[in-house]
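Input/output pair, single chain:
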Amino acid sequence: MNESHERTLVLLKPDAVQRGVLGEIISRLERKGLKLCGLKMLQLDDALLATHYSHIVGRPFYPRLAEFMQSTPVVAICLEGLEAVRVVRDHLVGNITNSRNDAAGTIRGDFGMSTQSNLIHASESSAAALDEVMRFFTTDEVFEYERVLDSYLYAPDER
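Output:
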């Protein structure tokens, strides 16, 4: 991986699975120019959920969120690119948890109507992304490869 590039985690939540929009969401991420480095479907267990949502595990709404997140498998995606965390969060996903209020053109703004059912999780910071990628992927599930397209996406000093 290029030093100036970073990796980030995206989770496609049960509502994205049930609504059949996985392909469209993944397509948006790829069309932006982000490189898929890891992709898998998994069923979340209690321990993984409690770790991932440790900052809210004691809140009254957590049991409902946990039930929702375990209602179907989720899709975990590791993406790589220049400023990937910011690009995914600010330009593709949207920054407002309540997707009714997110901007048109973002995944949440275009597809979401809920706070809980907002289709997608994206790492909030570079530090969180490092932890989250390691939480959801083993080292042999994240791939390093040269993508020919990068010479058309980035200037030479950005690759």
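Strands lie at 5-12, 35-42, 74-82, 120-122. The longest strand covers residues 74-82.
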